[in-house]
Specification:
The complex is a heterodimer of chains A (107) and B (148). Chain A has four helices and four strands. In chain A, 40% of the residues are buried. Chain A is of the alpha/beta class and 107 residues long. Chain A has helices at residues 20-26, 40-48, 64-73, 84-93; strands at 13-16, 31-35, 53-56, 77-79. A five-stranded antiparallel sheet of chain B has the order 1-2-3-5-4, covered by helices on one side. Classes of the chains: A alpha/beta (107), B alpha+beta (148). The interface between A and B is medium-sized, with 23 and 22 residues.
């Protein structure tokens, strides 16, 4: 939806939440955020926590506000038709481990 | 001579302007970066400011964030005009919330805001006059925290 500026972004882990207070409290810098929340608050939260990218699950509609915020903040957005559970499973299977340094971005 | 901070900024917050929520905190982040505050400290300040800003947006009519950068610390004040906090002890408990469905639909309002802020700041003082508003004073030491 909003492309990454660089293909070389490194993922330091993954965090999954719809509650932005949880992201603010617990997510680590450099993580991927999987979420069902499609407001510009998602992007502002990701920017404050310096997350690498946002993945919107369940093929949800992404409004122009959110896209504009993502461009402003330089946060790429991806969208998947998968459920949160399945998306988590695939990422984990593909080797994206929670909060371990040195895990590189998946293709 | 009175000591003066390295810089002093004020950022307005508009109550109920959901789509603007987070803008003031984004400005705080930019200013702190320009002054050369340690990135880890900036992140703690921004998390606290963002939660506090959302509290103002969700509960109050208006408010502002005041930011003062000193040699050894950053002081943040978040002041609002609104209903105030009826019971501060209760409000500080994780999970306690008086937020609307609308707040929850934005990803906030689960009662984690004030506990999150308290966890980020080195010192937090919260005062409120019912029917008038709330005032929060936060202090962040500029050396990076040893524990995470």
């Amino acid at each position: 939806m909003v492309p990454a500026l660089s293909q070389e972004a490194e993922l330091g882990g993954c965090f999954v939440a719809d509650l932005m207070s949880d992201v603010l409290a617990f997510a680590r810098e450099g993580s991927l955020l999987l979420t069902g929340l499609t407001t510009d608050q998602t992007i502002r939260t990701a920017a404050v926590k310096r997350l690498t990218a946002v993945v919107v699950i369940q093929g949800k509609q992404i409004g122009s506000d959110m896209i504009e915020a993502a461009r402003d903040e330089g946060i790429p957005i991806y969208r998947t038709p998968l459920s949160k559970y399945e998306a988590c499973g695939l990422l984990m299977q593909a080797g994206l481990r929670p909060y371990r340094k040195g895990v590189t971005c998946l293709q | 001579m009175e000591p003066t901070p390295l810089c002093h900024h004020e950022f307005p917050i508009l109550g109920r302007a959901y789509f603007l929520g987070g803008r003031a905190s984004t400005s705080v982040k930019r200013v702190l970066g320009e002054v050369g505050v340690d990135p880890e400290v900036i992140q703690r300040i921004c998390v606290a400011c963002y939660e506090a800003e959302m509290n103002v947006v969700l509960h109050a009519r208006s408010g502002h964030i005041t930011l003062e950068v000193w040699d050894d610390r950053v002081e943040v004040a978040v002041v609002d005009q609104g209903p105030g906090i009826e019971n501060i002890t209760l409000a500080l408990q994780p999970g306690w919330s008086s937020a609307s469905e609308e707040a929850r639909s934005l990803g906030f309002g689960a009662g984690m805001g004030l506990p999150n802020i308290r966890a980020q700041a080195d010192d937090m003082q919260l005062d409120s006059v019912k029917g008038q508003g709330a005032t929060m004073h936060l202090v962040f030491r500029r050396e990076a925290a040893a524990d995470e």
